[in-house]
Amino acid sequence: GQQVMQIPQYQHVQEGEDFTTYCNSSTTLSNIQWYKQRPGGHPVFLIQLVKSGEVKKQKRLTFQFGEAKKNSSLHITATQTTDVGTYFCAVREGGKLQFGAGTQVVVTP
Amino acid sequence: DGGITQSPKYLFRKEGQNVTLSCEQNLNHDAMYWYRQDPGQGLRLIYYSQIVNDFQKGDIAEGYSVSREKKESFPLTVTSAQKNPTAFYLCASSSQGRKTGELFFGEGSRLTVL
User: Fold this and answer.
1) Which DSSP symbol is given to B1?
2) Which among A1, A92, A100 has the least Cβ separation from residue B42?
3) Which end of chain B, N or C, is surrounded by fewer C-beta atoms within 10 Å?
């Protein structure tokens, strides 16, 4: 099945700084979804990207789908303590959704 | 309120015992899923069902069983054949009709084998 690699696995960020997490695939993706899981919580859907080169913004979060549709990124500007958690990308393969291993984000005040 | 309800939230089991985790949704979603999450790990698909009375194995189905007799219910049984069952189990559902087909998750069931 499709495999997506997320990097980095862990990210320590100073409050106010920016950071980016990446999701890479060896195959062309039809679409990609991003989820956020707060510590002790459950994953919550953030966004879906479908088109080549697509860029979508949600306040301080910017999501991008690569031109070749083999990679995606999530960039967060001016990190806040509320951004702490694990961010997952996920790809649909037929009737199922396959998740990457996630990037665990820790924010230092 | 519409949503997904998982129970129990915490469960302790002795080795050799089967245990069933409940998942109920009132979102009228056709598809339902079970994922397993280990500490610091991603989500691994156990089973999924796209329609009532039908389900498919995911990547780690061994030692687990499911049923889908009703649209709103998708219980997961962790059998004694599962070698390392201690984990956080997440149930999710999605609508085939929604453009994005995003998953809506329950709050999870944390199983500990003593």
Assistant:
1) -
2) A100
3) N
* Rounded-to-integer distance, Cα A1 and Cα A90, Å: 13
A61 membership: H or E segment, kind and range: strand A61-65
Going by C-alpha positions, the residue among B8, B101, B111 that lies closest to residue B48 is: B101
Q: Are A99 and B104 an interchain contact pair (Cβ–Cβ within 8 Å)? A: no
Burial of B110 (0-12, 13-18, 19+ CB in 10 A): middle
Q: How confident is the model at residue A95 (pLDDT cuts 50, 70, 90)?
A: confident
Q: pLDDT, tens digit, for every residue of A37-65?
A: 999 999 999 999 999 999 999 999 999 99
User: Collapsing DSSP states into helix, strand and coil, what is residue A32?
Assistant: strand
**A15 touching chain B per CB within 8 A:** no
